[in-house]
Amino acid sequence: RNLCEVGQKLIGSCLQFAVDCEGRPLRTIEGVSREPLGAKLEQAFVDCGAVQCGFCTPGMVVQARHFLDAHPNATRDEIKRGIEGNLCRCTGYVKIVDAIEAAARGDR
Questions:
Q1: Is residue 28 classed as helix, strand or coil in its secondary structure?
Q2: Which of 12, 44, 79, 85 could covalently link to 108 via disulfide, CB atoms 3.0 to 4.6 Å apart?
Q3: Which of 61, 99, 14 lies closest to 107 in space, CA to CA?
């Protein structure tokens, strides 16, 4: 699912009417990729092989960035819980969790 942040809330972008976002802060994958943590996450996804078909990647990166903002020192198990609800049919999540963990540690 593709996600965006409206204010401080992470939501499925397909469930949000554009008119309801008027005058509110909105962050999408394009905005996240311009931020240092977002850029680290994107590079870590590539370096760790967490990008396969690419369908879930934007939502995973937005969700991971949102999660790491609140939990910068998250454990691997916390990261797994932090990305719940975002489905990936290609990687089996191991590489995705590896990438989020690497970006959080500053390895990428």
A1: coil
A2: 44
A3: 99
Please name every residue paired with 26 in a beta bridge, in sequence order, or none if there are none: 6
Contact 82, 49 (CB under 8 A): no
**CA trace torsion 28, 33, 38, 41 (10° rounding):** 110
pLDDT tens-place string over residues 36-56: 999 999 999 999 999 988 888
Amino acid at 12: G
Distance (Å, whole) CA 105 – CA 87: 24
| CA gap 34, 11 in Å, rounded | 20
Confidence of residue 2 (pLDDT cuts 50, 70, 90): low
Helices in 1-108 by DSSP H: which ranges? Answer: 29-33, 36-47, 57-70, 76-82, 94-105
pTM reported for the whole predicted model: 0.86
> Within 13 A of 32's CA, how many CA atoms are on the CB side?
28
57: number of Cβ within 10 Å: 24
